[in-house]
Amino acid sequence: MSGIRNFSIIAHIDHGKTTLSDRLIQKAGIVSERDFREQMLDSMDIERERGITIKSQTICLPYQSADGQLYHLNLIDTPGHVDFSYEVSRALASCEGALLLVDATQGVEAQTIANLYQALENDLEIIPVINKIDLPSADVDMAKKQIAEELGLDPEGSVLCSAKEGTGVEALLEAIVKRFPSPSGDPDGPLQALIFDSEYDAYRGTIVHLRIFQGRIRPGDEILFMSNNASYTVEEVGIFQLKRVPLKELAAGSVGYMIAGIKTVSDTRCGDTVTLKDHPCDAPLPGFKEKKPVVFSSMYPVSTDDYPELAAALEKLKLNDASLVYARDASAALGFGFRCGYLGLLHLDIVQERLEREYNLSLILTAPSVAYQLEMKDGSVVIVDNPALYPDPMKIEKTKEPFIRASIIIPDRYMGAVMNLCLERRGINTNYQYFSSSRMEMIFDLPLAEVIYDFYDRLKSVTQGYGSFDYELIDYRDTDLVKVDILVNGERVDALSQLVHKDRAVERARYACERLKEEIPRQMFKIAVQGAIGAKIIARETISPFRKDVTAKCYGGDITRKRKLLEKQKKGKKRMKMVGNVMIPQSAFLAVLKRKD
Q: Are residues 356 and 220 in the same domain?
């Protein structure tokens, strides 16, 4: 065990976590130069295309230190985006140390601080690493000063490196083996292992990712999941070295995988404790705090025949993404589907894309909403996250919406623009402080409903990419809520309904009507697209009809002949409007969600 080091790389988005792990993999020599490619640990196509890490990935690196001792370094690369902070918390539970990366050009940002707090909660040893020192705009002294002032860490203990060019990687590896503690635990005690991730393999069943805190696990052992008492026989154990490498056993302190022919996907739960059936441990490990979803949206298959495939796909995806929450749902317009809860809009986007790519599904999503608290006149409290379940307004005493505390770190020259953006979104500025002469942190209390649409994109725009943003849910506060319905040709389309603040209702309804007018194809009759609150129409757009030239054959002659034909056409169109049913294309549902620009 003295030769094992379990550590994680944590940082803000784009500070170089994945590039640094690439250099560490190259240094360990477990992949040949011919097979090497950038972003080795980003296994999904979607991660490579977007250049972000979505899943934390584990790899075991052999390393011989300067004094000739051989070490096994278990590295867990983590995502940086606030929507995937749950992945980070799970990775840190399996480690004894963390490398905290700080970009030498950008300095300390919002997620850097948030991830540092998560690491301190897990009592980890932290090594600050100043990355990107090769760039012309790098300012190492500024980065060291911020590490001391904003993070409270010793700047002299920080390691300087350039992950892109490989400078300083050797010194970093020496710091890892010298400064991170080796894991503790009794290899001969009863087995106690924590499940921190899992994935589904069509041929082998569920592959469970484990950190072993005590005891040993070997093929042939009878194991027990402590949360549901399901037992299985272990077929294979091993470690990750880009591919799965089978071993004879995994002992205390190791991070690896286990295959036990688990076909029942729901048996594997993230944070569960695995032990031996005939020699169990006394108590389960503490596991993870359940992450509460903040954004809700319904998901329906385009073809209703794909519903069973969608149900199976969500169950398998849930293994790999423990923060996804879903329940069955039904809509008059779109049939059967699922109401899903996400940690943010990027999380929603990624889940949709993974379902479409990995499971070949075509999906329609409804407008995202948050969970509102309604206090009814009979004294009961109802939580509503779906506009379809919004009760009669006459029965509601008062409504409350979730508020977040947003921490926005910016250069002070953007203070006015950020202030305007947050006040536009009904934000309350509670505090601000200067970290240095030109960098400041602004604290706002904002309604979550105003943030989930495009707040992050707008913040990046108004701060020219320098603003960083982190948030936490704080409480529920009183609000004036209304349900905006969209009517197409007089019929309510429940999948387009939205719950919005009264002041924003007209703006949202107009926007939805304008986008639908562009997307719905013209018919032979006039179509009214309306936004309504109850029976009151607050917005309207009209899709004008095609006009067939019925008077083409009447050239010359009396005008009454033409008039007679036009009257006949008018009556026909009136009849058609009564029976005319409008098909709404899939693109129309998506257009209402996305902003024009």
A: no
Q: What CATH number has the domain bearing residue 563?
A: 3.30.70.2570
**Partners of residue 257 on adjacent β-strands:** 209, 238
Helices (H), 374-426: 415-424
Residues 84 and 81: their CA atoms lie apart, in Å, by 6
Q: In 3D, which of 472, 462, 470, 471 has the Cα closest to residue 11?
A: 470
Question: Both ends of the chain: CA-CA distance in Å?
Answer: 56
Q: Do 163 and 301 sit in the same domain of this protein?
A: no
The three-class DSSP label of residue 530 is strand
Tell me how far CA of residue 133 lies from CA of 103, 145, 149, 529, in angstroms.
8, 15, 20, 56
Amino acid at 269: R
Residue 305: helix, strand or coil by DSSP?
A: helix
Q: Closest Cα to residue 288, out of 237, 312, 322, 242?
A: 322
Residue 251: exposure state from Cβ atoms within 10 A (0-12, 13-18, ≥19): buried
Q: Report if residue 150 sits inside a domain.
A: yes
pTM of this prediction? 0.69
Phi-psi region of 224 (alpha: psi -120 to 50; beta: other; left: phi over 0): beta
SS3 47: helix
Question: What torsion do the CA atoms of 557, 562, 563, 564 make, to the nearest 10 degrees?
Answer: 100
User: One digit per residue, pLDDT tens: the chain, 597 residues?
Assistant: 778 888 888 887 777 777 888 788 777 777 666 666 665 555 566 665 666 666 667 788 888 877 778 888 888 777 666 666 666 777 777 788 888 888 888 888 777 777 787 788 878 888 888 888 888 888 888 888 888 888 888 888 788 888 788 788 888 888 888 888 888 888 888 888 888 878 778 788 888 888 888 888 888 888 888 877 888 888 888 888 777 888 888 888 888 888 888 877 677 777 788 888 888 888 877 766 666 777 888 888 887 788 889 898 888 888 777 678 888 888 776 778 888 888 777 788 788 888 888 888 888 887 778 888 888 888 888 888 878 788 888 888 888 988 888 888 888 888 888 999 988 888 888 888 887 777 788 898 988 888 877 777 788 788 876 777 777 788 888 888 888 888 888 888 877 888 888 888 898 899 889 888 888 888 877 888 999 988 889 999 998 887 777 676 777 777 787 888 888 877 777 666 655 677 777 667 767 766 655
In angstroms, rounded to a whole number, what is the distance separating the alpha carbons of residues 509 and 375?
A: 26
Give the C-alpha separation, 197 to 322, whole Å.
8
CB 593 within 8 A of CB 368: yes
Domain, as residue range, for 532:
482-593
The CATH number of the domain where 249 resides is what?
Answer: 2.40.30.10
